[in-house]
Amino acid sequence: MAKRIRTLASLLWESDVEDCVDRCSSQKPDDGTTARLRMLETENSNLRAQLYQLQRENALLRMPKPTPPLVPGAKPSVVELLQTWPDQAWIQAVGDSVVGLPRLREEILPQLHGTNNGKGCILFHLFKNPKAKASAILQHALNSVLDLSKKHPAVFKIGITSNPIERWTHSKYGYALDKRENWLGMKVIAVFDTSALAAMVESFLIHKFVNTPGCRNAAAGGETASPVEGPHFTYIVYKILLPPFRVVSFAKP
User: Fold this and answer.
1) Cα–Cα nearest to 5, from 61, 56, 51
2) In this predicted model, what pLDDT tens digit does every residue of 70-106 receive, in sequence order?
3) In sequence order, which residues have a C-beta less than 8 Å from that of residue 126 and are 6 or more positions away?
4) Which end of the chain is more exposed for a tag (fewer CB within 10 A), N or C?
5) Are 75 and 100 in contact (CB under 8 A)?
6) Considering the entire predicted model, what is its pTM?
7) DSSP state of 105
8) Cα-based distances in Å from 229 to 23, 173, 193
9) What is the DSSP letter of 27?
10) Among candidate residues 58, 231, 72, 87, the one with its CA nearest the CA of residue 161
11) 190 CB contacts (<8 Å, ≥6 apart)?
């Protein structure tokens, strides 16, 4: 393509030179010279049109090709999911077994997108390597709970769910409607294709933190494992206990 463009450009340049020479060689061209000039002008015009078309085709070839639409029933890629739900960057941290789940793209991602992640109350704090070993995932989950109390004491509860939006906003058991605890938010710390794996992380964390200040878990964990198709989420709901606002009085005694 580039070679053809250079050839046409050379022809155009030579035609322009010949045109100029013919025009300057005689101030009073005869009928034959006039016909020759017209023929050269027509040829030059055609060459310019061909050059423009080749340049356009060359530019189109250099343009990145759009991602083909997902074939119904085919397994999507992380890139395809992010093109549809660009705000859900946490998808990059889940394994292939989760990315291919139909319920992820048909239920979970549309609901998260439609509610702006529960009005910003649902955060995803996943281990960044989707191929991480179990020990790394468990250490990450442990650190996620410890981080809640870094600056101020925290009250928290560890759990699992097949739908974080529903667990947060449900009219009967949603954490957002718990007036007694007034939870601040939900932090999702692990996502799996089966409920059993999510329950194992839940049980591990409860075993570490049960009976510690701030932990609201009483059972050992794993009791609410679900047979529903994945994905399944291990989460922490929390609220931070900020110190009371100090009022400084400047009144004289």
Assistant:
1) 51
2) 455 567 789 999 999 999 999 999 999 999 999 999 9
3) 90, 93, 94, 140, 188, 189, 190, 191
4) C
5) yes
6) 0.68
7) I
8) 82, 21, 8
9) S
10) 231
11) 126, 127, 137, 140, 141, 198, 201, 233, 234
The pLDDT score that the predictor gives to residue 17 is 44
Q: Which amino acid is at 132?
A: A
Strand spans (E) along the chain: 122-124, 154-161, 185-192, 232-240
Distance CA 182, CA 198 (A): 25
Q: What are phi and psi of 161, to 5 degrees?
A: -160, 155
Q: Both tokens of residue 176?
A: 């957002």
SS (H, E, C) 167-200: HHHCCCCCHHHCCCCCCCEEEEEEEECCHHHHHH
**Amino acid identity, residue 206?**
I
Sorted by where each begins, the domain ranges of the chain are 2-62, 78-240
Q: Which residues fall within 8 angstroms of residue 250, CB to CB, at 6 or more apart?
A: none
